[in-house]
Amino acid sequence: MHSKLNFSRITATFLILVLPALAQSCDVELQPDYGAPVAHGGWEYRIIANGLQRPRGIVVDSHGALLVVDSGVGIKRLVLDDKGGTCFSVSEQSTLVERSELNHGIALDNENGVLYASSSDKVYSWSYNAEDGTVGETRNTVVKGMDNSGHTTRTLLLSQKSPGTLLISRGSDGNLDEEAKDIETGHCQLKAFKVADVKDALDFTSDGTIIAWGLRNSVGVAEDPATGGIWSVENSVDQLRRNGRDIHQDNPGEEMNFHGYLNSSTEETGANYGYPSCFALWSTDGFPDQGDLKTGNQFAPSEDDGVNDQKCNSDFVAPRITFQAHTAPLDIKFTEDGSEAIVSFHGSWNRDEPAGYVLSSIPFRDGQPVAASDSMDAAENILSNADVGDCPGNCFRPVGLAWGSDGRLFMTSDATGEIFALQKTGASNGSSGDDENSAGRSKERSWFALIPVGILGLVFL
């Protein structure tokens, strides 16, 4: 009788512990053809789709499907089979909008069923039915007049705090855009447009509200869901010299900038952030004529146009956080409670040693970064390449970010044509980067290790 009771208990324990683990197993095993990325800080990941041409911006519709700007192709729709955690498979893939001029920007009004996407010159909209995954036949031009060479992405953000408001970021005409000094040109600006009832196309330069100007190329734009604060991440200038000396390896830094709130006025609202006259200092090592400047302060490359370091720091808004030069932040998304900003760093081309190529987190508290403005380690790695020395030719390069259900994050990698799913599953316990653990299977392996133990218990008791 006693052994029968033990047998029953062991059997019950086996079923309770092992069967859920079996259900968590994932048969989706897309492997990279480069060194397996390394997850950090309690995160795990999987590659859930590949074979796209150049995936950039990404959103999730109300039914959980991914809408992805495949640059040079149009908008792809991926229907996912959600098996829990980071385990997804693509059950259906289609081209929702075939339009090669679409290159990056995308936004989705799930409540009203409107899809927005941008070319270098225009923002378009379509009616969108998430139930059957279709767009209407009519394509509307919402905003026009943004064309310039050089930086051609037009990032889109629909405000959740101010419904019907679309933010658009327009970047620099070339490496250094002198026209950005004139607010009337519309160059290098972040603007907000009321788009709920637009009948005729709005003009980017003459219409809308200036949220910020003097921004070289703020590709990533986000709204803090907790406070409504508007933030951007800035790609700064290349090949810069300071008083005739080359400083481009480690300066200027990339930036995280705060732009106030859409529904109230602050000193940052509509402010000038300095470009093309002033830039953020990253590394002070060997910096010419440093004086009292420290990381995060703005500096002038020279005084030829009448702007000096003092004017840079008194007349323009400095970044809240400065990042390593040339790391190229391309997107920013906040966690639901506003405690973290997740930033994708696409990676450098303008320095001898590669930098960036990483997905990172910046901790926030009370609507502001925890780190001081002169910090050089504000960003904490979430997903990095195994060997940054392999970049850019043989590694993932993160671009677009979008939150799905249950705290799961989707990320595009344009260089590899991939889409990743990530989830934070526990506290930081080091990184995992071998071929299996790094693909999000470490928990499955530990669960399956229980199976033979359970079987042995059944045999001998």
UniProtKB/TrEMBL annotation:
<keyword id="KW-0732">Signal</keyword>
<dbReference type="InterPro" id="IPR011041">
    <property type="entry name" value="Quinoprot_gluc/sorb_DH_b-prop"/>
</dbReference>
<protein>
    <recommendedName>
        <fullName>Pyrroloquinoline quinone-dependent pyranose dehydrogenase beta-propeller domain-containing protein</fullName>
    </recommendedName>
</protein>
<dbReference type="InterPro" id="IPR011042">
    <property type="entry name" value="6-blade_b-propeller_TolB-like"/>
</dbReference>
<dbReference type="Pfam" id="PF22807">
    <property type="entry name" value="TrAA12"/>
</dbReference>
<feature type="domain" description="Pyrroloquinoline quinone-dependent pyranose dehydrogenase beta-propeller">
    <location>
        <begin position="38"/>
        <end position="424"/>
    </location>
</feature>
<feature type="signal peptide">
    <location>
        <begin position="1"/>
        <end position="23"/>
    </location>
</feature>
<dbReference type="InterPro" id="IPR054539">
    <property type="entry name" value="Beta-prop_PDH"/>
</dbReference>
